[in-house]
Every structure is written in structure tokens, then in C-alpha cells.
Amino acid sequence: MKLLIVGIDGATFDLIHPWAQEGYLPNLTKLMSGGVQSNLASTLPPVTSPAWPTFMTGCNPGKHGVFDFIQPSGANYDLVNSTKIKQPTLWQRLSASGYRVGVLNVPVTYPPQPINGFMISGILSPKGGEICYPADLISRYKSDLGDYRVAPNIQYKQGTEAEFIDDIYGLIRAHGDWALHLMKAESWDVLMMHFIALDIMMHALWRFMDRSHERYEPSPNENAIRDGYRLVDEYIGRMLEALPDDAAVMVMSDHGFGPLRNMVNLNVFLMQKGLLKLSRKPMTQLKASAFRLGLTPAGVYRIVEKLGIQNMATRVSKNTRNQVVGKFLSFENVDWGQTTAYSMGHVGQIYMNVAGREPNGIIEKDNYDLARKQVIDALQDLHDEAGRPLISQIIIREETYQGPFAEDGPDLHLIIDDYNMIAFPLFATDGKVITNQIRGDSGCHRREGIFIAKGPSIKSDLQLPEASILDLAPTILHLLNEPVPRIMDGEVLANIFDDPGEVRYQEEDTKEFGDFDSQSLSDEETAQVEERLRSLGYL
Ligand SMILES: [Zn+2]
């Protein structure tokens, strides 16, 4: 039996259900009425880069070690890549059991790992990188399909909607065409293909579609997102046609989507509360006051000029000069010896400045609970300009991560304004706690993604209670009549099957999958991936 898995990054039933009802999504409708569906709870944070490794391993981030696009490292951060995933992926497991597997455009698969089959890595691939396995895969099909595209060619900016939408639809077509072609040209048992485009589109264009959005604007592009879903649906239909009758199909997303109101500079808030302190070096103090005044880098430069230290800075070093004029405050300006907590990451993650983990950490084990409680208490004061409290929920680390890497993860997860607001991922955009510097985004992630499954052994026309993204790997193994490794945190979704049978478990020895050596990308590759993440609004 063949299994096709279609990933739609960021897809939500909040949009799919009404559009299916109106007849725009005939193929998803067919899958839903002929199969099962449920909401799919994402990881904390509900972000692409921990969610896909969680799907691929069936393990929580405390076991696989990927918590975000970026991981704090000193006063800086490391970018994640596929070698940071510390558990075997579904593709490696299925390969070891003799399945031929195809994996196309899934996030956090660069550098591509050798499998019994073929792979093209997804977002987080550097532009010039070797993105496929085997290495000649893309070149074999290039004459038919043109160059492979990992990501958009155009970064969204207000006023460029027409070109942006055109490019995004082009990306959907490219991913759909490659998947259709490879599913016919290559032999496979399990094929996973992924559409990244709708996520990028929903970040940029949500407000043109959502009349209740506070930045709603009537636009000729009101239906652009719907038509993007429709295009994805069309490709799903073509893929279904290319499948044998007894194939099983799953459609899933890594998280859901909804409107974005504003962004929060959590580090500015922590500074105001005295939980994060800046270093007393004169340059930092100067930048901090410029920052508080909300000055642009050019404004800072004018102040520096007036104060007459510009020439001095030129003489001192180019690096110092760049520090003054090139950027605002960064984590390098933090006085780590006086800092209790800091925020890094895209939704609202807070790290305690823990001794032994952070390079200049000051929170000792004995003091951890108390210090964290102090931060949680302080966060209750986070409110918007109207005085409305913004913290919907705070989840402590041990409630969501378990495993050998759990302590590398953020200590607190904040749900701010029911995910209508998110934190700025790096130090801060400006000196305000609530900032309107949101780089054109009007949509952001929600916890509830989608799951749809249809196949000969799967029930039909059934809506199930919410499942977890952790459950899909064990469910896929069980569907294929394979044992489920005990290490997986998810559970087989037995109630999707007509006859679930008995789940077989497998005691685990991951050693056969290698030693999980983390590798960092080269500086050049890192710069390329950072550039891509920045253009997508993730950094
Ligand atoms: Zn995503």
C-alpha cells in the first residue's frame, strides 16, 4: 500500500471549512468526507522549525533537541539544521525497514540525510547548498521542470502585493509540479510532499481578507489566500488521480494561523522590570538612550556626530563605528552578570539566565524556581496601551518538554493575547514594549493545525477530537503495520481505523541510526539561511 502525506504549512480549518462548504476546495472536501479529520495540536512554540522535527520523530523537542529556528548560544544564536535533530526521523526508520521513501521540501531537512529513496530539503536550506539526495536528483529532472525553488523569490513589502502573490502562486506550482512528476517518475512506498507557500502568504496578507482585523484594508487581493488554498487543492486533486485506488492519503499542517495584532519587545519589558540589565559601557548607554527615544540608526548617527565622538569612533575601529551606526541594541549589550531572564524566539519564549547553561549565567539551581516565579509574577504586568492585560497563559518548561535536551529549551512559553500578539524574535525592534514595527505582517501562527486521513483501512466522514502532532509518526507506522518505537511520545490514533488491531511496540536502540553528531553550517551557508529567514520575517 502506498502512503502519500501532503504537508500544508500553516493550514487551518478556520479557513478550510468555510471555503470547502462554499465549494472552493473540492479535493480536500472529498478527503474529509471520505476519511477522518481532526485539529492537530502543534508544539510549543507553534513554530515551523520545532513542529516538523516533532512530526518527523514522534518525539517532543526535549528528546529531539530543536526548539525554534534559532537556539541561544552565548550572546548570540545558532541556526538549526537537520543534524540538530537527535532522534531518527520517520524517513530513516522507514528506510531501515525497507520502504522506498520520498521527502520533498519539508522544513529542517537540510542538509538532506541519506535515505532509501529521494529527498529535496525545504526552507532553511542555503541558496547554494546541495539540497537533494541523491545529489543528482534535481539535475536529472531539471530539463523537464526547470530549476527547483525552495522559497519565494520576492519578499513581501506593502504595495508589492501583485508581484508577491504571483510569485507565491508560482512557488505552489513549482512544488506541486515537482511532486507530481517525481511521484510518477520515481518508485516509492511513502511520499511526503510539502507546500510552504500558504504560510508565507498568510503572514503577509491576512489583513486584506479579514474584515475584523484592526488593520483591515479593502483590496483587490481580498481573495488571494483563498485562491492559494484553491491552487493547493487543485494539486492535491492531481496527486490523488495519480495514486492507485488502495493508497492512503494524509494531509496535515504544522500549526494553524490567525490574525496578528502587534508585536511585543519582551526584552524591553524585562529591562523595565529590572530583570534584564544593559552593560554600563558608554557606547551601550548611548545606544540605550537613543533606543529609548525610538531613534532610527540614522538618528543615532546624528547624535553621535553632534557629540563629536564620530571621528573618535572612526579612529577606534570600524567595528565600533558599525556598532554605533549600524544597529540598535543587541544581546551583546546585555550585562549578563546582572540579568535574570531574556527573551529569544518568535512567539514568546523566555530563558532564565541559568548558571552552567548560559555562558555567564547567574541563576543557580537552588534559586531557579524562585527566580522563575519572580519573572512569571512580573509578566502579569504586561498590558497593551489601553491597559488590557496581555498574558493569556504561561507554560513552564517541564510541562511541555521532557527528555535529555529539555533543559536546553526555553524556561517559559508565553501565549500573548491568545496568540494575536507575538514577541520579536531577537533583542528588540525599538524601545517600546508594544511595537508597531511588524514589517508588514498581519497574520501569525496558532496552536491548532489540521489533520485529514483517508484510506482503505480508515473510517469515513468522521470528525475526531483534537490529536497531537506527536501522534502522526506512530499512527503512520501502525498504518503500515510496523511496530511503534517506545521512545515516541505520541500515541497511535486508533480511532481513525475501522479495525485498529493491536499496536506493536518496539524497544528502542537508536544507535543503528548513527551518533547524531550536530554540525553547524558554514558561515556562508548560515548567512544565506539567515537572509532567507529575515526576508520571511522570522528574524
Ligand atoms: Zn509552519
Quick recap:
This protein is an alpha/beta fold.
How would you describe this structure to a colleague?
The chain is α/β, with parallel strands linked by helices and 539 residues long. The protein has two domains: 3-259 and 444-535, Alkaline Phosphatase, subunit A; 262-442, no CATH class. It has 18 helices and 23 strands. The strands form six sheets. Strands 1, 2, 5, 6, 7, 8, 9, 19, 20 and 21 form a ten-stranded mixed β-sheet that branches. It has a four-stranded antiparallel β-sheet with strand order 12-13-15-14. A three-stranded mixed β-sheet has the order 16-11-17, with no helix packed on it. It starts with a strand and ends with a helix. The model is unreliable at 310-326 (pLDDT under 50). Zinc ion binds at residues 9-10, 48, 199, 254-255.
Number of domain modules = 2
Find the count of extended strands (DSSP E, 2+ residues).
Answer: 23
Task: Give the overall pLDDT as a whole number.
Answer: 91
* CATH topology (fold) name of the largest domain: Alkaline Phosphatase, subunit A
CATH class of the largest domain: Alpha Beta
In CATH, the homologous superfamily of the largest domain goes by the name Alkaline Phosphatase, subunit A
Helix content: 25-40%
Content of β-strand: 15-25%
